[in-house]
Amino acid sequence: MNLDVTSIRAQYPAFSDDSVWLDAPAGTQMPQSVIDAIADAYRAGIGNLHGAFPASARSDAIVAEARQAVADLVGGSPDGVVFGPNMTTLTYRFAATLAKTWGPGDEIVLSTLDHDANLRPWVQAAEAAGATVRYAELEVPSGELPAEQYRHLVGPRTRLVAVTAASNILGTMPDLPRIAEITRAAGALLFVDGVHATPHMPVDMVALGADFWATSAYKWNAPHVGAIVAAPALLAELHPDKLLPSPETGPERFETGTLPLADLAGVRAAVDYLAGLDPTAEGSRRERLLLSMAAVREYEQGELAHLLQGLAALPAVRRIGAPARSTATVYFTVDGRTPQQVAEYLAGRKINAWYGHSYCWEATAALGIRDQGSAVRVGIYHYTSRSDTDRLLAALAELAS
Description:
Layout: H1 5-9, E1 20-21, H2 32-44, H3 54-74, E2 81-84, H4 87-98, E3 107-111, H5 120-129, E4 132-136, H6 150-153, E5 158-164, H7 176-185, E6 189-193, H8 205-208, E7 212-216, E8 226-230, H9 232-236, H10 261-275, H11 285-312, E9 317-319, E10 329-334, H12 339-348, E11 351-352, E12 354-356, H13 361-366, E13 375-379, H14 386-400
Parallel strand pairs: 1-11, 3-4, 3-5, 5-6, 6-7
Antiparallel strand pairs: 2-8, 7-8, 9-10, 10-13, 12-13
Helix pairs in contact: 2-10, 3-10, 10-11, 11-14
């Protein structure tokens, strides 16, 4: 493992206030290099795309570099990177586009583990097309999503399977290659919500079997930009609603309006930052990303083990779900306190943590906690220090006593 967390933390201006940042599943902080890249784009001057003057050419270069950066991050092609304001908006767009070819008798398969952004757009598109929705069920109380159930859900009329690569509340990481194998055998497409997984592991969307990989840049140190990545040949088969003057080819025809150009400069800088987390990594940016993100995974899993050991020593703290393979994300309750009360208590001690359903609407219902305020969520990120987790454990011990 080659992460120097002290050096990493020194790159974050936000860390000057002594807060404990355990809210990363809802969005991460920006290192100085990303902040500088955004400011530099504005300082240099940017114009709208495809013009004849230098500021426009700078914008064209920013977009091209951002597409290449995201492609390097997830193992896709830059010509298959579609940008948008967020993953939810993009998923609605792709759902509406794909559903143009659906009709009565067609089926889509979703999961009750997923964030609602990978459920509701597909449900609504299927209803409009007259297609049938089937569900893979979250296993209670483990929080697992057994892959073999897809053998009974996916069939000759299945057009699409949508599933998360990691739950943003439980951390559960389903067996994507197995789900992809079943999906592919039926001739269906696999849409993977990679929003929570991408910041915590090396990603190879092709090896994982994803036809579409969705990610949100603000979950990995960049501004609020969403992206969906697919093979260019697959995108070429789709026909989104668009303005008549908009491009007829490439990812641009899926992008409505003007892109956030300076923010895309931050996206490229964030990918460069991630590629440099392991200072010993060499090779192309893609190669350095794979090594750095493997180091991230190892570090975060070590800190997760420490946190879980500490929580297990607190009888009043109850973890929700216990998946065998997960991101370093923990969902829990404290006896005698509502999740909101716990989060407010932690906030009073400068510990940032979220509470509530976190848009996992079906999952929290299946777990039987949604109507009770759900639970408290903390997430370990590669900038989380041991002292951060120990401050959380100390605060929870104090609260429970």
